[in-house]
Amino acid sequence: CPEDTTVLRAAWHKRLNAPSSSAVGRLFDAAAALTGLNHRSSFEGQGPMLLEAACTQQTEALPLPLDRDAKGIWRSDWSPLLPHLLATTRPASERARIFHASLAQALADQAAKVRDHEGEFAIGLCGGVFQNAVLSAEAQARLSRMGFDIRLARSVPVNDAAISFGQIVEAGYAASRNR
Length: 179
What we know:
globular
């Protein structure tokens, strides 16, 4: 990064103006910055698009620790991936690919944990990150090998419109159960 990041690092360590986010899009933004592919975006999704475009080869996923938080949500620990994303001795294309593979594996691992605790279920892949062909193909392949019933958007766009649609369906289902 060409700018001095001392102030940003200090704010991050003190958690000043550094809210937590569970949005996978922000994870893509961070990975694009850490690999050096994008430090300043001109439009939404620019970093993730550059990260996807940089992927040129298959690679193994880095296993990421998975823990259940106080609310029962399975969360991946991304800290083991940071040295790999920052490793400037490796080409950005390789670092971009390990990010995609590790994200797809983390998704599959989380789905497996939920299935172990809740039983069989279908899994829908939606949200803007699944416009990313590399992630979508990796996630589908890994989930299929694990025997998941995968649902993909056909009539609704895979981006945030699908999330909104899903929220409406969930609200309708919840309302019908409360009658």
